[in-house]
Amino acid sequence: xxxxxxxxxxxxxxxxxxxxxxxxxxxxxxxxxxxxxxxxxxxxxxxxxxxxxxxxxxxxxxxxxxxxxxxxxxxxxxxxxxxxxxxxxxxxxxxxxxxxxxxxxxxxxxxxxxxxxxxxxxxxxxxxxxxxxxxxxxxxxxxxxxxxxxxxxxxxxxxxxxxxxxxxxxxxxxxxxxxxxxxxxxxxxxxxxxxxxxxxxxxxxxxxxxxxxxxxxxxxxxxxxxxxxxxxxxxxxxxxxxxxxxxxxxxxxxxxxxxxxxxxxxxxxxxxxxxxxxxxxxxxxxxxxxxxxxxxxxxxxxxxxxxxxxxxxxxxxxxxxxxxxxxxxxxxxxxxxxxxxxxxxxxxxxxxxxxxxxxxxxxxxxxxxxxxxxxxxxxxxxxxxxxxxxxxxxxxxxxxxxxxxxxxxxxxxxxxxxxxxxxxxxxxxxxxxxxxxxxxxxxxxxxxxxxxxxxxxxxxxxxxxxxxxxxxxxxxxxxxxxxxxxxxxxxxxxxxxxxxxxxxxxxx
Amino acid sequence: xxxxxxxxxxxxxxxxxxxxxxxxxxxxxxxxxxxxxxxxxxxxxxxxxxxxxxxxxxxxxxxxxxxxxxxxxxxxxxxxxxxxxxxxxxxxxxxxxxxxxxxxxxxxxxxxxxxxxxxxxxxxxxxx
Lengths: 508, 128
Description:
The complex is a heterodimer. Chain A is α/β, with parallel strands linked by helices. Chain A has 15 helices and 12 strands. In chain B, a hairpin with a 3-residue loop joins strand 6 and strand 7 (about 65-70).
């Protein structure tokens, strides 16, 4: 055992033990005819036959293969499945560009207060003043954090925030006379950026990153003309590098009448330190489930508020929360609004969690978030850069990007390294993104991890690099310790099996 | 593997010129970088493409990648067998894995493309 491993704790593979982790069949393959989870009382009103309510062609006698189960079968089924899962509450999750930070439990406590969790969207405004006040204050907090003038809390996720951002830009430019044709997107951007621009009717023009892994202002100047509606820029970018020419880039774009959109996915690296609004950004989206400790859980519900400068405010989605005297009111009267992008007021529970997070940390705490997130990423980068190829050797922000270039001669690629990490008890990092780095491994530790955890991860990565030289087959067939070992991703994609066809299934 | 006689783009497509017909695919380097291709999205026959306009998409387990048309022209034919067997692009990128054929509008555009020698040098320079 190396000195490092001893110092940093055990990184032996197979941190798990063979405990009571059950194999679990599908619910469809469990249960028994006539079994029920709960017994309902006799119906005490006259029963209406379905035949009297619905046309015959819509009626059926049974549901093929529908499972009939007791309560305990259902509870055990989902509890067992949950034990197959991996989450931030269970271990380190260094998924770059996703900011998988630990979500403090006080956020859960707060949103479960009955005034928040039991509020109904159709309740009269006089009875939900507390909820409206929270939204009003959260808008002000996010505006201050980002340096923007207004914030729409409505979008349900970052990608929807992007679309709203581009809709606002389009609405604004239309009000100026014409929407223009093109949007500039750096080659290191998230794929959702060009997708959002395209859905809003724009043609995307790719801007190549310079040799420093950043966008050079000259490249923007060369591509900029009066047909360009906007540039979509991520800062810090997906290589974890600060776009240090952003102010000049914004000037170039504004000089030709274009708008600057900032993808705020990486806000965690600069929060409390610098503000996109001060860099010349006109619109940005926040990812509440990244920077503001809202759970990513199962794909949502998240929240992707959009910050905007005053000239875009007339186009905001309705309703907006305003303060009239001491009362908070929902204002629907925005004649130029782009309309609603989400039912009611957005994913309110996510907003409450983010509010709790911001208020519990305060300005100095948020600044410390960014400082420690950046410190942790640089710690990993400097301790692994002699082991793994670092395509852009510089200080990084909140994440660092390695590649498999040093392992490739042994026939090992990024995927094998990622799979092997699972045997050491870690969730793999983001792989094969950003696209401009061949075989990219994008590691984002976040601020919530201890030095011991980072050391264990570093030790595991170093050991994997040794294994790549000594026993490459061990990596190619990894993971070995997980519930299910290496999956055939190619077959899964080429011949997907999307439907249950078990016993009792009468489906084709 | 870079066959002689074809013309190449910086985006790793090749075109084989036979009279005014240009048969187009992606290079062996491109398929090896993408890994196992699981899906190919092809254009309609008859569509007009400009030089270096995106005309389709290939998807592997690793990444989704745009395809760029090396030459201006109308689509004469698409390799529709790729819809059910995209793995042909991996197995035989210069043969059975061809993707589309276009009616070449302007042979002068070939000067914007690379020869086999130039493409080999381009690959060597990229692989630093």
